[in-house]
Fold this sequence. Notes:
Helices cover 36% and strands 17% of the residues of chain A.
Amino acid sequence: MADPTTIAAPRRVRVGDYLIERLRDLGVGHVFGVPGDFVLGFMHKIERSELTLVNTCDEQGAGFAADAYARMRGLGVVCVTYGVGGLKIANTTGQAYAEESPVVVVSGAPSLAERALHPLIHHKVRGYDTQLRVFEQLTVASTVLGDSETACREIDRVLAVALREKRPVYIELPRDMVDAEVVAHAAPPLPPEVSDPAVLAAALAEATARIAAARRPVIVLGVEVQRFGLTEAALRLIERTEIPTAVTLLDKSAIGERHPSFIGLYAGALGRDEVREYVEGSDCVLLLGALLTDLNLGGFTARLDPARCIHATRGRLEVGYHVYERVQLTDVVDGLAAADLPRRDPSRAPRPAPIAPVENGRPDAPITVARLFGRLAAFLSDDLIVIADPGDALFGAADLPVGRSPGFLAPAYYASLGFAVPAAIGAQLAAPGCRPLVLVGDGAFQMTGVELSTAVRYGLNPIVVVLNNGGYATERLILDGAFNDVLPWDFARLPDLLGAGRGFRVETEGELDAALDAASAETETYCLLDVRLDPKDVSPALRRLAGRLSTAAAGAGSVSEP
Amino acid sequence: MADPTTIAAPRRVRVGDYLIERLRDLGVGHVFGVPGDFVLGFMHKIERSELTLVNTCDEQGAGFAADAYARMRGLGVVCVTYGVGGLKIANTTGQAYAEESPVVVVSGAPSLAERALHPLIHHKVRGYDTQLRVFEQLTVASTVLGDSETACREIDRVLAVALREKRPVYIELPRDMVDAEVVAHAAPPLPPEVSDPAVLAAALAEATARIAAARRPVIVLGVEVQRFGLTEAALRLIERTEIPTAVTLLDKSAIGERHPSFIGLYAGALGRDEVREYVEGSDCVLLLGALLTDLNLGGFTARLDPARCIHATRGRLEVGYHVYERVQLTDVVDGLAAADLPRRDPSRAPRPAPIAPVENGRPDAPITVARLFGRLAAFLSDDLIVIADPGDALFGAADLPVGRSPGFLAPAYYASLGFAVPAAIGAQLAAPGCRPLVLVGDGAFQMTGVELSTAVRYGLNPIVVVLNNGGYATERLILDGAFNDVLPWDFARLPDLLGAGRGFRVETEGELDAALDAASAETETYCLLDVRLDPKDVSPALRRLAGRLSTAAAGAGSVSEP
Lengths: 562, 562
């Protein structure tokens, strides 16, 4: 037995190895990226580590995949080279920031020696700090690992902020630091974010009293419930009280949609009328971790009276007009789940829309948006995870009955086109038991659809439904022009280009049934369904939303005719 | 006749129309972009204007196309929506900054009213100014057109800076400002950048004396000669003195390569030895507008003695160790062209490498990199403009004898993969008489190659040569791993996906000849040559350069084995 008075020799470690260790310890299994000379040394290390390196076609794909991975697994990593790699993921990092997804951006960079000696090294924009300055705008913490003394602490600090804030962070790794040997002293933990006990007690007391006294309370789950790992606590509250529960678009599938207390999606005019009326008619709307964005609120068609709301978000609880600060969302949800609240009779609450029965009697009928989503609703199973790109793919998917939780991914606030296909790669690697069902418009597919190449390379098998209607349907409803057209591709021929996959052209209901059956049976590779829709045929939800957005734009004067 | 004492009523104009007018007056004919709701109003205006709107598959493609257009035509425009559009072109804008290409970024944005009323509008990252802050890092001037009083002046100011600095600028157009009617008062012109006459006279006197006294002077043309429109003045100097003239990689084709004074590419170990020896052995190297970057200097294998150099760049002239400030590049080149300098005897200077004779006797021989470029050299004609992606496509192309000036485009400093295919769209629209010959690696093609969709849509006909060697060949020579592999695509099948174009698979010399002949004859659409190369077969230039980069990296400790 070692003499307890002996001081252990400090552990020495290389900076690149320490970063890999810490990521692994935090549950990361995959790193998404594209190589480049400034990051080859670190990628070489990853390749020999327990982490799996996943190379996408373009950095944009890696950024979206890491975002999806983070949403599923709690932390995602994208690894790129300097400048030409880093700046390509400004947008995907911006989305992770907006939608609270903890993505670690690791960028290789010129060595410290190169920086000192040469003003004009390739991949440099303005100064050597240009990329850092850009990412300071898009992340909650950033560091350049330029100092052996502090490198390990900086890694710890930045990763801790990502986990606490659930937002992206930036780590720049000069190539001469990858193998620099340093003392592995861990950073002191971040000061915990704790509630002020007195404020918390008062806040919970008022909230509990309000809920208990309400005639017809309702819960609306928002995205922070999933991000902060509060799904279980929220379920305890729901199951103890049987309060009817809706979700926002950004948090769809926070609760399995066969749950007896689930009533549907609340999103103003975007959701079903009976859910909107039930929520807006409630005398106590308990919003848990919901972001009140324009899309979550159906283009601001939602009508929530703040006086009748209890709104819990990170670090803050509003009960009517009373604002409580220094109260943590975790403590509020736990507190309400443990509170003495009466059990409700859920019988008067709306039930989720029944799945439209799928008759098989019209195999030659041209496929419509409504029939497509009706058929997909019947096709859903708990091993499928639905991933929707912005546009009618997302709006149409809003009412799909997703039983799995989490079982739905979409950038329903920041709304960057091109997310869904690369996200499917990240999601399936994060949750190997599932198979992605990707819904994506033709315009968005032309942005990032070739990332199915990455699915082939890593043996993944998403089912990809391309809503092919000749362009940007959402925008046509706001203001149309040739700019909303895209070149008609023969999407089902993608397997010919990639040398793998199965493609199906779907023009009728019968062809859709056949293609979905074939996709079910074909589990070895991706299946792509090119679903040819009438360009004027959009989901009712989109029609309502676009009407609202169009009115808003015209009112602002931007699209009126001169 | 109007009474001259009458003051003309101030012209009233809508902000969006004024921006379009000014772009048109500055020679812009095309705007590249992808629509989104915040920019629909402005795109609608463009569509009804004299400008042609060119919609690419992804914003990245639009950014690269606008960059190429700017290099060919003096100003380029990329137009995108807020957030999801703007942040996707951070990288292409960074490249335009690094390589001095005047690109105007026009981004739609939420209305001023929306910003005031709602904290969470879609496509927003952190604050409404996040995108502006990012572009401040990547441009030389930026503005948000939020004030009717100043909108026209701001447009003038920002465009003037782009033209003066030859670098990108950023204009954010809130959607409620597009049709705001304002008084069209132009901004006062920027103060001209003039030389200090006394400094200029002294600088020219010393430079002229040095050149006149030199035994064997040589000129090296750099990128600023083309950017600042000094090609004609430089040619006057060259033709009056017959001083042998080389170019840097970033400025290849600044002078037609059949010009009697042209000796070849100067790029350290990257160029041919006789050019390097001639330049480095000269007692007076006149560098005109050259950026001394690592790639221009062949990975710092160049050995230029500053004591024997005259180095003219924007605003500065170095004669040996004498630095003259406040002298403009234009004045220096004009001054030298008009100076009394002796005529030289060019007979001892190296001549450009003769084109390797193409024997037709080995049609079954597998194609090699050397034979590919030999055959392309013979294929070149003055209606072709060569566009090379970074990597061996660029290095192999370095010695192609480009007769047209300008006839060569490549991001030879910033080196962002994926440039060449979208750049071909911008270049051909900027110079309709030319046909692009695109050289691109398989890895880079997987990033942006589907932008050939845009070529189809706008009736363009590039010839695209994919150097298909199974991955990132340049990186393999530095440090190899599975991360340098890409999925083998059947590139010649792209026309099946896009529904247009011609594809050729090339494995032998005979197939290359046949494909090039067919591509010559097929002028209605793009032609794609999938040239299957041995993964280990790279150009000699790349082998030399990678050796240098590898040594640098190993010396810096990043890729050594632990």
